[in-house]
Amino acid sequence: MPSTPRELTCSAAAEDTCQCENYRNIDSPYYWSPSEKNCRTCPNGYLSGYGYNIQNSLNSITSRCYRVEYSSTLSYSAALASCTANAAHLINIRNSMEMGVAAYWSSGTRSFWVGATALSTANTFTWRNWLSTTVDADLWCRGEPTGGGVGWGAYIHGDRGDCLDQAAVTTNLYFICEYSV
C-alpha cells in the first residue's frame, strides 16, 4: 500500500475542505478525513474518486471511497448485499460532481446500479441511505423516470452519458459500492 500523501491545501473559510496531494487523480486510494483533518487511505479495493474537474466542478473534495464492480453483474438486491458484506452500500449520488465521478467509471457501455429505488410510489425514487431524500431531477436522463414503478431501481446509464435511468431490480448490472469514511 502506498504511503499516505501529505495534505496540500486547506480553505481558510472551512477547515474541512482540504485536498490530498493526489487530488487530480480520480483513481486514487486516498481521501481527506474532515474528522481527523488528515489524508487517509481508503479500504483495500476502494478508490477516492476525487472528481477533479468533472462536470466543470470546482469541488474536488470527497470524503468517500468507492469500489467499482466490473467483474460480474448482479440484481439490485444481490449488488446491495455485496456492498453491505464489505461495510458499504450502493453509491448515493449527491450532486453533479459525484455523478461525474460515477459516470467516469461507467463510460462506454457499462451500466451500474446506484443506491436509489422506488419503494412506495411509482417513479418517486429515494436514496436508500436517505429514505426521505428523493433523487434530484437533474441527475436523470432526459425523459426519465418513466414507466417502471415500485420495485424498480436507478442505474447509471453507461452509453447515455452522465445520467440515471431505471430498470426492474431483477435486472443484472454492474454496481458501485460506497464506503462512507
TrEMBL record:
Q: Which Gene3D superfamilies did the record assign? A: Mannose-Binding Protein A, subunit A
Classification via Pfam families: Lectin_C
Residue intervals of the C-type lectin domain: 61-164
Record SMART domains:
CLECT (SM00034)
* Domain of life, source organism: Eukaryota
Q: What name goes with this protein?
A: C-type lectin domain-containing protein
Organism expressing this protein natively = Brachionus plicatilis (Marine rotifer)
